[in-house]
Amino acid sequence: MLCGAGWTGGKKASWQRRGKPVWAADEWKDIATREEKLPVKVRHVDAHVPKSQANEEHQNNEQVDQAAKIEVSKIDLDWQHKGELFLARWAHDASSHQGRDATYKWAQDRGVDLTIDSISQVIHDCETCAAIKQAKRVKPLWYGGRWSKYKYGEAWQINYITLPQTRQGKRYVLTMVKATTGWLETYPVPHATAQNTILGLEKQILWRHGTPEKIESNNGTHFKNSLINTWAREHGIE
User: Fold this and answer.
1) What pLDDT is attached to residue 75?
2) Could you tell me the keywords of this UniProt record (predicted)?
3) pLDDT tens for each residue of 45-67
C-alpha cells in the first residue's frame, strides 16, 4: 500500500511493492497523473482504532467506507444476477427451448456455469415456451382417427400462433403436429410469411423426420400461395 507522497516511489517501481502489485494501483496512477498538473496532498487515516479513541476524522472515514461498501455490493450483486440471467436466456434459446435439466446439461457441456434457479426463472418468463404450451393444448387434426390412413410420420398439421414479441423480435410460432402421434415441432419467426413457413418445414420436419406425404393447414396466405405450392410440388408433398 502507498500513503502520503509515496506514489512517486510507486510510479518508479511500476506500481509494485516487494514484487507484488500495490493495492488500488489504477487509482494511484490517476492520482500521479493529476499530481503532475496541480498540487495534491494525501493523508493516511488509520481505520483500525477502537471506537473510544476515534476522533471526527476516523468517524468520517468509517462512514465513507460503509457507504461505499453498501453501494458497491448492491451494484455488484445486481450486475451479477443480470449477467447470469442473460447467459441462461442465451443457453435456453440456443438449446431450442428445452426444459430446465436439459438446458442446464446443454450449458454444462459447453463450459457455461449456470444455476438451476436462473434457468428456472428464464423458462418461467419465456414467451416462446408459453406459446408452445398453448399449442400443445390445441386438439390436432388426427384426433378422432380422420388421418388414420397415414402411416407414421407421413402427414403433418401446421398452423401459426401469436405470442408477445420476444427479445429477438419473434412474434409468431409455426406449430407442426405429426398427424398420427401428435408429436409437436415449433419454429419461432418474426413474421408469418411463406418463406419463413418453408424454412420452418425444412428445418423442423424434412431434416428431422423426412419428407412427409401430406401437409394440411388453413387457407392463410402464408400457406396457400405460389411459393409454397411450388416448394411442395418439388418435394412431392400433397
Assistant:
1) 47
2) Endonuclease, Hydrolase, Nuclease, Nucleotidyltransferase, RNA-directed DNA polymerase, Transferase
3) 676 667 777 677 777 777 766 66
pTM of the predicted model as reported, rounded to 2 decimal places: 0.45
Q: Is residue 209 assigned to a domain?
A: yes
Strand partners, 186: 175
pLDDT value for 228: 86
Q: Would 18 be classed as within a structural domain? A: no
The DSSP secondary-structure symbol of 214 reads E
194 lies in some domain? yes
Helical (H) or strand (E) element with 176: strand 172-178
The backbone torsions φ and ψ at residue 213, rounded to the nearest 5 degrees and listed phi first, read: -85, -35
Three-state SS letters, 181-199: CCCEEEEEECCCCHHHHHH
Domain CATH number, residue 221 = 3.30.420.10
* Domains: count for the chain: 1
